[in-house]
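Case study.
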Amino acid sequence: MSLSLYAGTLSSGILTGLVYGLAAMGLSVIFGVVRLVNFAHGEMMVLGMFAAVVLAAAWGIDPLLSALPVAALLFVAGYGLQRGLLNRFIDRPDHQQFILLLGIAMILVNGLMMVFGPDARSTNVPYGFDAFFVGGITLDKTRVYAAGGALIVAAALYAFFRFSRTGIAIRACADNQLGAAVVGLDVKGLYAITFGIGSAVVGIAGCLLSLVIDVRPQLAADYTLLSFIIVIVGGLGSMGGALLGGVLIGVSEALAGVLIDPSRKQMVSYGLLILVLLVRPQGLLGKRG
Amino acid sequence: MLTQDLFEGVTPRGKMLFTAGLGALLLLPEVADSYLISILTLIFWFAYVGQAWNVMMGFAGQLSLGHALYVGLGGYGAAALYMHLGLGPWVGMLVVVPVCALVGMAIGWLGFRFGVRGVHFALLTIACAEFTRVAFDHITALGGSGGLFLPVVGGRGDDLLMLRGSPQLYYYVMLVLALLALALCRIVTRTRLGYFWLALRENPDAAAALGIPLLRVKLLAVGLSAGMTAVGGVFYAFYYNNLFPDQVFAMGRSIEILLGPIVGGIGTVFGPVLGAMILTPLGEGASLLLEALGITLPGTKQVIYGLMLVLIICFRPAGIWPWLAVKAGLVVPPGETDLREKGEAE
Amino acid sequence: MSLTLQGMTWLTRRQVLVGSAGLVGAASVLGAPALGQSSSGPLKIGVLLPRSGILAQAGQSCARAEAIGASVLKGLGYSVEILSADTESNTDTARARAEKLINDGAHVIVGAFDSGQTGAAAQVCEQRGIPLVVNIAAAPQLTEQGYKTFFRNFPTSLDLVGNAFPLMKEVFATTGKAPTKALFLHANDTFGMANKGAFERLFPNAAMPFSMLEPIAYDPKAQDLSVEVAKAKASGAELLIVTTRAADAILIVREMVKQRFEPMGIMSPGSSGLYDEQFYKVLGKYSDYATTILPWYDGKTPLSQQVRAEFVKIFPKDNFEGHAFNIGCTLDALLVAADAHKRAGTTAAPALLEALRTTKLETHMMIGPAITFDAKGQNVNFSSAVVQNLDQRPTVVLPKGAAEKAPVFPMPGWQNRG
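After joint prediction, the assembly is written out as follows.
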């Protein structure tokens, strides 16, 4: 096994991990503020992926650009969902939230199959098969662009929560719901905005991922699970944790593929998850809650 | 005495309906054909494993999203003993049930020991189930991902000992298992342990303050739940005669297992039964309805099913049984029992 | 079931609908034994396929044979009626739907694409004495379990791989080029494992010009196969032998292009993936030259041409070749059932089973001799063809008798394609 194999594997793991991390960030933001576990997460991402495919097929829009309208679409959908339905479930036990979102997930994924059929579809970007060659390493273009996009969105999200009035208000909500209500913040409205933002982030991640992966409705459940692993490893509710978790899972799966056996690489992710849960249940960057 | 205990709090109407329903189920194979028998066997199976899951979540408050783990371990364990050592399923259960109970308790212990709670604990159970699924994909002695196939023994006779025979045999076996699970849960909830579970679920801190050994009580719930589920797995193996890791250990199976109890009424003894009796026919009913309407587009049924889940959880969040039982006068409403008993005493 | 809806009075119409459907269902299950015992009339074939769930792509592709088969079979003088059912890619549902099909009067079941679901349906068919004609399901164990009503018109992995070796040699002989090192890259699923087992058994005596490197197995659920392909590239393999499921074939080739991994060829001993319509649509010119060695339809027979004409009529937007294998296998299973019915002259199960055991069906869609079944219900007379993607469609290149074009080997590099 040559050095370039390791270097290539490592870089590919990092790049893919960043996009996974962005997807998981949507989940993390929602949980961190609304305290709601979005079990329809992967389904929303696949919705974003299909939106990217439709825009690419109809008008040839690059998924990197269609990320913006798709984000808007998913923001509205997420906002509406939280306002109309999920706000009623905030204080309910976990299993009730789980069933509700599971039902929504079933409707979404099967609805997508009814509309688009089960075949894999691609956004077919012109650079879809290109790669950069740096030294002995092959860096595939779509992954580089997707990872770059993920970093930009993550930075924007961070800035939003750090500096904007709404972002600060949302963080206040997350830290102390009662206090936020007392000082006159519209908590439920902010929850809806948060869910909208989380959904938009997931939508963008879907667009970016549609560069790398062919879209099928059946992908959804696997991505839900993957995002869960990432946020738990990184720290549920922590934005940086989601990115770190994504990269960690991406890299460890890639390395496991080289070192052990590709068909066992998922075991490494689950093993990592179990380990983190036991050693540091709040996640690597999570705060003890 | 025992039956009196089992039916405590059930109104005469409830007892009558239960007896009538049970009688109908016992006689049904005489008149029904094997489609109905097949569906009912499935309903009993889900009622049974739902009951098992409910012990852990409904009684002890530990959310498991990975119960397929015990179905798979139980099924594979018994199938391996049957194929390699010629041991029948009931003997196999003597091995796999304790093993699964121990596995469950080990996972539970790790989780509780390290303070893994709520969603995190649920994720731990998923991770263990998925980890095992991928591991079983690689156990070549058990067929790996290629699947494990049990020989289908010819001959028409029903062999209860080896669990080989007609659909009617499986129907009665599963019916009895579901009834036993129902009775067991009914009894256990009335023991000291049952009250400990109740205290634990309602308020862990208060329960600890009262001196209830929380860890041991929780572990007993997890162990009982896992062991019971393993029996469901053994039945599964001998009913289907083939096992694939991505079918028995699937996360989808874990989810199907817990839908019944939640829809029926979590923490109630009859909820898992009612849930299974609602959900399986709901799926079949949706298929029939679509067939009648001439809609063949794949996916439609699941959309309807998903919609029904959303509606049920919106309108009956505590499950259907608690509401139905009181509404239809099947049980004495909670609270009234005490009053009446007190009234009689005074 | 209507109980679930009480208290939601605004749903009354649905309640009535669902309730009445339940009643109809109950009536039909209870009343079934009394009805439909007549053994004249058309043969009712229940077609059981994974139309939704993870195998939906393949299941829906196979299902296209239903619409086509209805008219084609009528044209051949068979009298059949097709009932459809969806396994939802789930064994529990497969079992229930098989029961339901038989209840609805199905005399024969055809299905079910996947070995697990086929096994579940086989239980039901065995218990009820109804024949099951398998369209696709390759696990060799299925015909070893001892079923009496099980007929498989699909090769086991041993047949697929055994047929592939001589044809591979013929490709090398025709083109004058042969690889020296081959790598087996496969999904770790039922089919992948079965093919791997067949390789291990047959390769030592096959006298192939190449040696086999350590095989690489990947998780069929994986969405990222970059590492697997990088590993394959690093192994120095000159021939990549794959067993893919469906969309993973696209992932593999995509990664090969990106990583500039250019072996002399990509060959599959009979797995789906390389000839699926989605493979061509997504990969375009990069889909070319990938080769599958499997039983294929004979494009020159009138039957195949008729099927193609029907396909174009019913699915004008889709490519026939991308579905031809699934349709061919399913249609042949329908033909086997219809032929048995015609010879038996009745829809009664015992006569049908007897007729199936003595099947000798000359007119079928896939290349090969007449369809017959051995004592275990397995058709052992399969011939395979070498099907290479040329001009973004699957093209028969060997054997010479059926070939439309000559094989291309080694395949041109990724950068040297129009």
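Observations recorded in class. Chain B has a mean pLDDT of 88. Chain B touches chain A through 48 residues (CB under 8 Å). We will return to this complex in the next lecture.
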